[in-house]
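Study this:
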Amino acid sequence: MKQKPAGFWVRFFATFIDGFIVAVMSVILANIFQDSPGDLEESTSAFIFQLMYSVVGIIYLTASRFKGTPGKIILGLQVVKEDGERIGIGRSIGRFFAYILSATIFYVGYIMVAFREDKKSLHDMICHTRVVYRDIRE
């Protein structure tokens, strides 16, 4: 079955949703656990949440049966191997670290999705993955 690749804007909004979730939860946790009023910048609870979101949301959920972060799930996207199968935890971890390369030099690794026919980012090419629309039958 041919899977339709997800383009730049839908992937951008999925990342925006993930960032929004992290920001809201970080502010909530920072306000709950802060040592003194106005000390949000130095809140370790917000940092711990962001770290946990990265591990759970980006690495685990992408390799799980959900095949993506909450933003991708909400927008009907999934991360798969080039053959369409679910990625494993090792590939998901590699993809997470490959994000750093995609963000280097003005996010060119992300922007290239808009200009490539196969809609692959730099981290997709490095890890042999694709972001595609979910099959409704799943």
